[in-house]
Amino acid sequence: MANKIIQWIDRRFPLTSFVKHELTGYPTPRNLSYWWNFGFLAGIVLTLQVVTGIFLAMHYKPDASVAFDSIQHIMRDVNYGWLLRFMHSTGASAFFLVIYIHMARTLYYGSYRAPRELMWWTGQGLLLLLMATAFMGYLLPWGQMSFWGATVITNLFRATPFIGDQVVVWLRGDYAVGDDTLTRFFALHYLFPFLIIAGVVVHLVALHTVRSSNPSGIDLADKDNIPFHPYFTSKDFFGLGVFLIAYFTVVFFFPHSMIEAENNIPANPMVTPNHIVPEWYFLPFYAILRSVPNMVGGVAAMFLSVMIFAFMPFLDRSRIPGGARYRPVYRVLFFIFMLDILVLGYVGYYPPTSQTIAIGQVATFYYFGSFLLLPFISKAEDQWLFKKGLPPNIIALIESEAIEKRILPQRRRRGDIT
Amino acid sequence: MNKFIAVLVLHCFISPAWAEEAKLEKIQVDTSVLAVERGVDTFMNACHGCHSLKYVHYRDLAGFGVNKDKISAWRGDSTLDAAMTSLMSDDAAMQSFGKIPPDLSMMTKAREGGNSYLYSYLIGYYLTPEGMTSNHVFPETKMPDALGMSGATDPAQRSEVQAKAHDIVSFLSWAADPHEAERLTLGYYVIGYLIILTLLLYNVMLAVWSKIK
């Protein structure tokens, strides 16, 4: 019976061949490490956010006079409303954590390099959408931090040349953040995740064209590829189990650590909190914003600090495969860069003092410096490594890969593989 | 890389704690129904005149298991479905304090330090050498010393006030997060289930991969 149904569908829609091509037969490098689990996890968190979000939206009221009350209604009266809300608020942080690890992996292993530039750029677009979605979602509880965070950030758009003031009013729907801002942020907060889903589809189509990168950095020819299912489905599901344990530990036992105390006070335009901080995932960028003394410069620097990742395929001039693995200088740069981001996060959290400003400026300088010097460093490192001679195992790998690539067309012609 | 993640995760959990300034008396609230009941009792006598609890309804107390007769006594003419709003009007409050006493439904979650902050604040009143009452935790507070800590001189009196403050905080902590007990219990089941599931998934993965390794 099931077979008949599938046949019926297959005559009208390429179901079986799609599943075969994209899942059961999709060739995946066998040497992927657990760092390659995070793309799948990002998809799961996205799903969790969309599902909990839709149910929250059934009880939430985007109206400045009752928004805060409606959150309390969800937390207290709606059946398992507290669970939905804590899953959603914790999920936002989980999403960024997963995405940042996913990006760090890409940077470490050089997965942004040819032919995967489009993966990296669609990912960059997804990051921007995610940031916008999180930022707008944070306004919805209509607490003090929601209100003042939105006020501070929308105000940054005053730095837009010529039409700054108009842009700010256009974003807010009013001269100050208020009811109109809340309703439009709600509408867009509901819309953007679906744009993200569309972006993910593009990201995945590109992935299935260029195939997964792998820790060796070489495009393993078919010899070392194995079908995605059941090998990587089983690995991804195990990773998912570990992730869910961590995620639900926070949801059930420390959910309030994800909600700023100040945000449990209803928004009040007359009272400014004495310390306005963004969520942790924006802190490094916020620190960069504050490190530049001039507002327009700060906004430009902050915007650039997010966008500069897109230039990585051009900035990295090395020919050595395998990212940081076979590149000692790049590896050191990578880890210092990670440390630098943590320092920036730390600086972004604190109210500015002359000391933290100084640290922040050094860290900001280093942040951009490591991108701008990368072309020269990577080129020099490349020449040094080739002169010194590459390690034997990687030479062997490159050679076997070259051989595989040569015999691949023959095998394909013989019909060994499709 | 592992360390990087550890630091990042740690960072997002501990960051709220950094902002703490005043030294607080660290307390653990009592989550038992009896403690909460005593807390409501003291609250109705000492605080409800000025502060409301607009997100807490009398029926929520009944749902938690608080004595029904006591609830009827507290609510007076209000219905069981009514919110525990205070009798003081905003105008009257502005007249007396220049400020509206904040709603306390979310108070234990609305301050850095949470329960410990509240407790330290309530017992933080003292008499200055000039004979004025002041507060260690919130020196410029407009709120009078409702529990009488500044006037309590002998240790027995002081510990009585501390016990009252502790009960009130236990009650307010429940009020801010009424589903906490349910959340923790469910949490243990969910995490237990996930651990078993993950172990099984791990074995499935090993079995699948054993075919090619």
Structural class of chain A: mainly alpha
Count of helical regions of chain A: 17
Helical fraction of chain B equals 40-55%
Largest sheet of chain A, in brief, is: 2 strands, antiparallel
CATH topology of the largest domain in chain A: Cytochrome Bc1 Complex, Chain C
Q: What's the Cα radius of gyration of chain B?
A: 23 Å
CATH architecture of the largest domain in chain A: Up-down Bundle
The pair of chains with the biggest contact is: A-B, 52 and 44 residues
How many structural domains are formed by the residues of chain B?
A: 2
Which runs of chain A of at least 5 residues are low in confidence (pLDDT < 50)? none
Give the overall silhouette of chain A: globular
CATH uppermost class of the largest domain in chain B: Mainly Alpha
Average per-residue pLDDT of chain B, rounded, comes to 89
Strand content of chain B: 5-15%
SSE pattern of chain A: HHEHHHHHHHEHHHHHHHH
Number of DSSP helical runs of chain B: 8
Strand content of chain A: under 5%
- What's the CATH H-level homologous superfamily of the largest domain in chain B? Cytochrome c-like domain
Structural classification of chain B = mainly alpha
Distance between the termini of chain B: 27 Å
